[in-house]
Design goal:
Elements (H helix, E strand, L loop, with lengths): L5 H7 L3 E5 L12 H12 L7 H17 L5 E5 L17 E5 L12 E7 L5 H19 L6 E6 L3 E8 L2 E10 H34 L2
Parallel strand pairs: 1-7, 4-5
Antiparallel strand pairs: 2-3, 3-4, 5-6, 6-7
Helix pairs in contact: 1-4, 2-3, 3-5
Amino acid sequence: MSFSDFQKVVGKYGITTLKKDLTSKLSELTLSQYFIENLHEGLKLKKTNSSEYFLCEFVISPLLFEVLKRHPKLNLWSHDCFLDTGEAELSGIPDYLISYKGEIDDYEQLRFPILTVADAKKDDFAGGWAQTLAEMIACQKLNENNHFEIFGIVTNGIFWEFGTLQNDIFIKDEFSYALLTSLSKIAGIIDNIYSQTTTQVEKYLNVEKNNSSF
């Protein structure tokens, strides 16, 4: 995605932006002690000049995948999924993407992309949200269904921010969470997003199945 200016994305695609509490009441998720110890051991290796790739490998990818283990119907794409909407500005490779695969163990086919995650390069969260919002709009187009609630996360590995897009309404969570003090909360939010992803896609598929039976 070529966007780095959040307001440019908002203006070009007619998005209304709001800020609300999306996460404070969500439950925490306690991760295994083994995972937590590995995460902290990895963070000890971080250097002053470590690039964003360090946090991608040692924090973002492991955390997204650890929570994903609880959701076998979902698929994780990491820097390897090209979103082709037919529009140059809305096509590209997200840093991370979560899609629904159902019961079929087909990890190659992209179906129902619902969550996109962007690495806030050089701690540029504003630029990260420009990229993420564009990717969320791309997911809407690929799903051919604006009623799906699309989720977005922007993180530099240490701080995590969350948002949603439904129809043309983008809501950014008014809270930001720090990994070192809110790991269980961050994991709980991701777990909730994964659950909502499965629920809404399966509800849609059931409606489509029922409609086709008439």
